[in-house]
Automatic annotation (TrEMBL):
Gene3D superfamilies: 3.40.630.30. GO terms for molecular function: acyltransferase activity, transferring groups other than amino-acyl groups. The keyword Protein biosynthesis does not apply. PANTHER family: N-ALPHA-ACETYLTRANSFERASE, N-ALPHA-ACETYLTRANSFERASE 50. Keywords: Acyltransferase, Transferase. This is Similar to Uncharacterized N-acetyltransferase SSO0209 acc. no. Q980R9. InterPro entries: Acyl_CoA_acyltransferase (IPR016181), GNAT_dom (IPR000182), N-term/lysine_N-AcTrnsfr (IPR051556). It holds the Pfam family Acetyltransf_1. It comes from Pyronema omphalodes (strain CBS 100304). Residues 94-241 form the N-acetyltransferase domain.
Length: 248
């Protein structure tokens, strides 16, 4: 199993996961629910002959590895930057409990998880395999309360990394501070859990301005950027300069 938390998330988000073992190293092949192949490789030598055998119509690549990105760049298809961002948390400085806007409440973690599994049944395996925790916000200003915002996290106590794997606020409920509240709760929960220093991680596409603005406002810093390259997609094309990458 890959020890990179972000790769772990992608792998856990997949219906099936295969490791391709070549004499040089391991490449992760995963199939997401739509049948698209995701390749994830992290600076391990790669068997390009094996990659070339994949069905080109269904290949999406996520990689930090300049050699693999250079290989995929030859497809000359759409590509975008996916940023890996993080903030530091510490047991010694647990942030104050954030305030929810009036009329909103957080159900218990058990209720949140049951609701999430009911709403996204195809993600049940992902949630169970990754041991994810779910945070939800309900609107109690309505006669029947409604769940309007949620996020899921994967925690790794050994590396003290917590990964925000999903975050969403329903369109009618945006710009009320709900996402900021959820992330603050995650940071608070994680600082209370780790011994000493820990980190909260997430990934975001550069094109997602609302999310990127939110994360920067909350102090997240870009750790490195990976490329998400789709062989038959429609996302804007960028020129690829692998020498611009952060060190990771
Ligand atoms: C990104 C998202 C989670 C933000 O949720 P939200 O509850 O509206 O965010 P908040 O109200 O907590 O915003 C806090 C701050 O983030 C920034 N922000 C949020 N939405 C923004 C937007 N559309 N444009 C610019 N800045 C924005 C602002 O600085 C905002 O503070 P302000 O309202 O005082 O100016 C929401 O737009 C969403 O669900 N998008 C679709 C799913 C998604 O992209 N998830 C993230 C995947 S990485």
């Amino acid at each position: 199993m890959c020890d990179d938390l972000i790769a772990k998330h992608f792998i856990n988000s997949a219906l099936s996961h295969q490791l391709h073992q070549s004499p040089e190293g391991t490449t992760h092949f995963t199939l997401n629910p739509s049948g698209r192949v995701w390749l994830i490789s992290h600076n391990t030598p790669t068997d390009f002959a094996a990659l070339d055998k994949l069905d080109p119509r269904w290949t999406t690549l996520n990689s930090y590895d300049p050699a693999i990105v250079a290989w995929a760049a030859e497809w000359n298809h759409s590509a975008q930057h996916l940023r890996e961002m993080k903030i530091d948390v510490s047991k010694d400085k647990i942030p104050d409990e954030p305030k929810l806007p009036e009329g909103y409440k957080m159900p218990s973690t058990i209720e949140a998880k049951l609701w999430y599994l009911e709403k996204f049944p195809t993600l049940a395996e992902t949630i169970h395999k990754a041991g994810a925790q779910v945070f939800v916000i309900s609107d109690h200003t309505r006669s029947i309360p409604k769940k309007v915002a949620w996020c899921t996290i994967i925690m790794d106590k050994e590396t003290k990394k917590c990964f925000i794997s999903t975050l969403e606020v329903l369109p009618d409920y945006r710009r009320k501070g709900l996402a900021q509240y959820l992330i603050s709760m995650v940071a608070r929960t994680w600082s209370a859990t780790v011994e000493g220093e820990g980190t909260v991680w997430l990934t975001v596409f550069d094109s997602n301005v609302p999310a990127l603005t939110l994360y920067e406002k909350m102090g997240f810093k870009t750790n490195r950027e990976l490329w998400n390259i789709i062989r038959a997609g429609t996302i804007r094309r960028l020129s690829i300069k692998t020498d611009e990458w952060g060190s990771g």
